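User: My advisor asked me to double-check a structure prediction for Glucosylceramidase before group meeting. I don't want to rely on an old file, so could you generate it fresh from this sequence?
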Amino acid sequence: MSLFLNKQMKDEVEVWWSSEKNPRDRAWFYSPSPISYELEQRENLLATAPDVTPIPTIAIFPKITYQEILGIGTSLEESTIYNLAKMSHEKREEIYTQLVDRDSGVGFNLMRITLGTSDFTAQPFYTYNDLEVGESDFDLERFSIQKDIDLGIVQTVQRLLEISPDMKIFASPWSPPAWMKTNEDIRRGQLKEGKQYTDALAKYLRKAIQAYQEQGIPLYAITLQNEPLLEIDYPSCYMSPERHNELAIALKKELVLHSLDTQIWIFDHNFSDGWMYVSPILNDKEGNAATDGIAFHDYEGEPSVMREVKSAYPNKTIHMTERSLWGVEAADRFVQYFRNWASSYNAWVTMLDSTIGKHQWVGIPDPTLIVQNAASTDEHWKTPEFYLTGQLSKFIQYGARRVESNYGSIDTVTNVAFLNPDGSLVVVVVNQTDNEQQFRILIEGQQIIADLPAKSVATYRWSSVN
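Assistant: Sure, here is a fresh prediction for Glucosylceramidase from the sequence you gave:
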């Protein structure tokens, strides 16, 4: 029986710790290293009557609620699938369970897939409608996701859904088919001018949604173009806000016509350009009506932009769709995402191997959540980031609400708090300092006094007071 259904345990608080170690150090690709705390469950704490202990205080107000949480997860881009395919069935199953099972793993419940290849792939770049130069296919008669099936992408997602049926999937394209683009190439370029190309791309995206649905994989949401302000030497496509708006409207019509309920998330790029990009779309009546949410990446700018955009467009959900980070500084960034109205968070790239492969990004990636030994492909190890992310994903349920709490201080501890649908309260606390920190949590006439080791994250969970 759950702790939160056992009234005799009502005043006890469950505690888990994870710690950082050598964050972002490329040595994690070459071999594992002992980590002090790996989602380690500690002795329960007791809630007591408040006193005047002069220590940093986290004050929680569970009746003041904010955004609903959709989920936390990572990506199933082809590089990860490629490495998983090299493992034995037993080892693959082990990793699947560790990724999505809430009891024996970290409980990721929101996964990002790519529509066609991204830069993180071991394959030649492809889309679902690749033609010879000079050809076109406005009726999309040669559309097919067969490569996704052949490469095991579809099978992997299907298996994860079998293990975790409530898991949600959203998808992002890195480029339209080359024949739709100004440079006739999946890399760089723009969508060709004209309504016929906008409509063709909308139809292409709608057919991708249907094709995955036919495979038993419903897509909860779709972003229209990964990083639409970027042109680079891997699948990419510059798309102005005005063209993005046209595409959102055209895709919405396709979804309505074909009775599809997949959400449309616009933008899918950096905080720094958020205002410039989303306002022309959301200030347009049709664009606003076509848009369900706004997706952000965290490579430039600050999370506070999400709060500003949410204030301006309160009926739109906010999503952090791409960024991998390292150490307790990253954990505090997670805190900031949710405190600034994100309803979800997804890491980017789940598993590369010990040769940092295979991928076609233009730089050298930092350590991934899981690393595979290239010389012995069934062997793998987890970086501290796997556990640090799990401090949130394992405990924050779909449908949870962020609740009011004071942020705290990077000189002591910072936090974010949630009320789960089952009535449990979850507080994630981050200690970025070089020293152990003692603090207390105050909530509705009770306090919990806790100690948190240096450079560590703790999750506290207990039954709701009411």
